[in-house]
Write a structure and sequence with these properties.
The chain is of the alpha+beta class. About 25% of the residues lie in helices and about 30% in strands.
């Protein structure tokens, strides 16, 4: 019996190769995740309402953000995950179905809030 969609995924096949490339390339993976998550109902949260952590290393300063999820887990991401070409980014909890849309239109212009 054939696949209902008419597409056949085989090792090294076009569909499989494209999917593998998307999952291995960080930029393509981020774009795929954003498209997939943007279809889910999300809770909007302003970046300023998240717990901010500043980490200093030889490579420079890195800002990380955390949101306590309703399931007890924590949604974590860094300033490197914030896209310059969009006013928000969507993240999903690893342990449950919570999806948050982090709004950060002022972050890029002013940098992270001190505090």
């Amino acid at each position: 019996m054939g696949a209902a969609s008419g597409a056949c995924i085989t090792p090294g096949g076009t569909v499989a190769a494209g999917a593998e490339r998307s999952l291995q390339d960080p930029l393509l993976r981020s774009e795929y995740d954003s498209r997939s998550l943007s279809a889910l109902p999300c809770t909007d949260i302003d970046l300023d309402d998240l717990r901010a952590i500043t980490r200093c290393a030889e490579a420079g300063v890195r800002h990380e953000f955390e949101h306590d999820c309703r399931c007890g887990d924590t949604v974590r991401f860094s300033d490197a995950d914030l896209r310059e070409d969009a006013p928000s980014v969507v993240f999903a909890c690893r342990s449950c179905s919570l999806c948050i849309r982090v709004l950060y239109t002022t972050y890029r212009a002013a940098g992270p809030a001190e505090g």
